């Protein structure tokens, strides 16, 4: 049975003290109320080591929001996958549309990042999704397929076990405009079908696929009720502990 998951993406929000306070809040809210899914918070690099301390012994996993496409060396300002792993983090988000859009991350660059993250023992939450224009042209399936083919479909079956996919239509990220549960389900079913073509039906059934894009406390229940939606990658709402907990609790219904 594939894992259900709710993962928070804090993006470039919260100073260190506020990040530690939020992580403490998330941990405490789940201490006596076990979640029915995996819960992960993905934080800026500088928060990782401190948040890892906070989360020690709790059910909450930890991830970074990015890592370098190089192993190590003279790459000023970069943070390697090995460094991320050494903080105690278990996950890294790669392929987020904000990284592709604002930082020019291509399929090739992301392919390198994914390989390095896996090599250093991180699980990858790999994001894909189309722009509004691409959806209006009905090209969303081709776009998502190309993103997966370009950066993760080169992986071996063994490596694939450490991949979580997140479908995040760009037009729904931070816009308050969620994909309908039918639109999200249709895309996730399509993604599962192409994973099946590549890695076989059993591997596809075991692959956790998340929806992301303005997922919140009021729409999570309807989204998670769909058979192919295994949870959410949550941006804005993951900064509000009550809302994040309510999304996690959507798995209890
Ligand atoms: C995201 O950026 O991964 C995301 C889903 O953001 P939001 O929930 O704010 O739309």
UniProtKB/TrEMBL annotation:
Pathway: Carbohydrate degradation; glycolysis; D-glyceraldehyde 3-phosphate from glycerone phosphate: step 1/1; Carbohydrate biosynthesis; gluconeogenesis
Binding site for substrate: 9-11, 174, 214, 235-236
Pfam families documented for this protein: TIM (PF00121)
Compartments reported by the entry: Cytoplasm
Reaction(s) the record says it catalyses: D-glyceraldehyde 3-phosphate = dihydroxyacetone phosphate
Protein's name according to its UniProt entry: Triosephosphate isomerase
Keywords assigned by UniProt, alphabetized: Cytoplasm, Gluconeogenesis, Glycolysis, Isomerase
Quaternary structure annotation from Swiss-Prot or TrEMBL: Homodimer.
């Amino acid at each position: 049975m594939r894992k259900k998951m709710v993962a928070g993406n804090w993006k470039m929000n919260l100073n260190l003290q506020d990040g530690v306070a939020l992580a403490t809040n998330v941990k405490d809210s789940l201490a006596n109320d076990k979640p029915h899914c995996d819960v992960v918070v993905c934080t800026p690099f500088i928060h990782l080591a401190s948040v890892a301390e906070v989360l020690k012994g709790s059910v909450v996993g930890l991830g970074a929001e990015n890592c370098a496409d190089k192993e190590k060396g003279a790459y000023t300002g970069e943070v390697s996958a090995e460094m991320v792993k050494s903080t105690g983090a278990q996950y890294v988000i790669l392929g987020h549309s904000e990284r592709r859009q604002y930082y020019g991350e291509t399929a090739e660059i992301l392919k390198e990042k994914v390989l390095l993250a896996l090599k250093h023992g991180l699980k990858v939450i790999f994001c894909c999704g189309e722009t509004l224009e691409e959806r209006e042209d009905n090209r969303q399936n081709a776009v998502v397929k190309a993103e997966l083919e370009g950066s993760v479909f080169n992986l071996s079956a063994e490596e694939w076990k450490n991949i979580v996919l997140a479908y995040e239509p760009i037009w729904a990220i931070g816009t308050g405009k969620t994909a309908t549960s039918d639109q999200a389900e249709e895309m996730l079913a399509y993604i599962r079908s192409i994973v099946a073509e590549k890695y076989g039906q059993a591997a596809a059934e075991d692959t956790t696929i998340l929806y992301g894009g303005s997922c919140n406390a009021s729409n999570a229940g309807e989204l998670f009720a769909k058979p192919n939606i295994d949870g959410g990658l949550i941006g804005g709402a993951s900064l509000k502990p009550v809302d994040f907990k309510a999304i996690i609790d959507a798995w209890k219904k």
